[in-house]
Write a structure and sequence with these properties.
The complex is a heterodimer of chains A (about 160) and B (about 120). With about 160 residues, chain A is mainly alpha-helical. In chain A, about 70% of the residues lie in helices and about 0% in strands. In chain A, helix 2 crosses helix 3 and helix 2 crosses helix 4. Chain B is α+β, with helices and mostly antiparallel strands and about 120 residues long. Chain B contains 4 helices and 3 strands. The model of chain B has no long low-confidence stretch (mean pLDDT about 90). The chains are: A mainly alpha (about 160), B alpha+beta (about 120). The interface between A and B is medium-sized, with 25 and 22 residues.
């Protein structure tokens, strides 16, 4: 069954309900485990006890995802916009709290965008558009058959036509 | 209004959550912890049962959630009461108190009650 349209929009906006539910439940289990560890349990035993006390994790997860999907689906556009805006504000706050990471991310993006723009501009000028010479349509690209000069492959015969 | 026993249990957990959140914003684990401590582990034996209740209440508009950072810098979902939630808390608290009073009257009878025929 293809995903309904509204779910594809969610994917585009980076909202993943199942992942969020997983995050929330994992936080609970880890917090419980940590508490049990401070009370003297071994980490493995604490993890198991935390899971035991939680109950049916799969069922809880399934129910929460279902309820949340229904809730989001019933939301009107205003509520969804407010929700999205809230997530954006949270994201911005996080970026401000981690300047080193933010700077690295920005510079990586800038380098990537810059390099791509340069390459495509160059390709555009040389390959796609006409170059500023006298008879641009007579420009050809030469390629030598049989490998590079001095290489072991090929028969060493260079042909032009 | 007819309520099955499952509804009563679910409704009880709801009102406990509403009351717990009336003290301020909390994440799911903190809500569990507070309820368990206050009730001496009598309610919420299965901790996971809290989460579907939270999600249902958010769908009803009684609470709202926001992602934030916990004390130890982990990503956690914090819940707060809405105005609707506060109203619901007041109503449910009254209903519960009246219910408890009514049941108490019957259970607290020391001798078999007798009245004149109506």
């Amino acid at each position: 069954m293809a995903a309904p349209r509204w779910r594809r929009y969610l994917w585009l906006l980076g909202i993943d309900i199942a992942a969020d539910v997983d995050d929330e439940l994992r936080f609970h289990l880890e917090a419980k485990r940590d508490e049990l560890v401070t009370r003297g349990l071994a980490p493995d035993a604490a993890s198991q006890e935390a899971k035991r006390r939680f109950g049916d994790l799969r069922e809880v997860r399934r129910m929460c995802v279902q309820i949340e999907r229904d809730r989001v689906r019933k939301m009107d556009w205003k509520a969804r916009l407010a929700s999205w805006r809230q997530d954006t504000v949270y994201g911005a706050r996080q970026l401000r709290r981690n300047p080193a990471f933010t700077l690295t991310a920005i510079m990586s993006l800038a380098l990537g965008i810059g390099a791509n723009t340069a390459i495509f501009t160059l390709s555009d000028q040389i390959l796609l558009r006409l170059m500023p010479v006298e008879r641009p349509r007579e420009l050809v690209q030469l390629r030598v058959d049989g490998g590079h000069v001095g290489s072991q492959s090929g028969d060493g015969v260079h042909t032009f036509s | 209004m007819e309520r099955s026993s499952l509804d009563v249990i679910r409704g009880t957990l709801d009102v406990l959550i509403l009351k717990t959140l009336s003290w301020g914003a909390l994440h799911g684990y903190a809500i569990t912890d507070m309820i368990q401590r206050q009730t001496d582990d009598a309610i919420l034996v299965e901790e996971g049962a809290l989460y579907p209740a939270l999600y249902r209440m958010e769908a009803k508009g009684w609470i709202e959630s926001e992602w934030g950072l916990s004390d130890n810098n982990r990503r956690a979902k914090y819940y707060t009461l809405t105005a609707e939630g506060r109203r619901q808390l007041r109503v449910e608290k009254q209903t519960w108190e009246r219910y408890a009073e009514a049941v108490g009257k019957v259970l607290g009878a020391v001798r078999k009650p007798e009245w004149e025929k109506r």
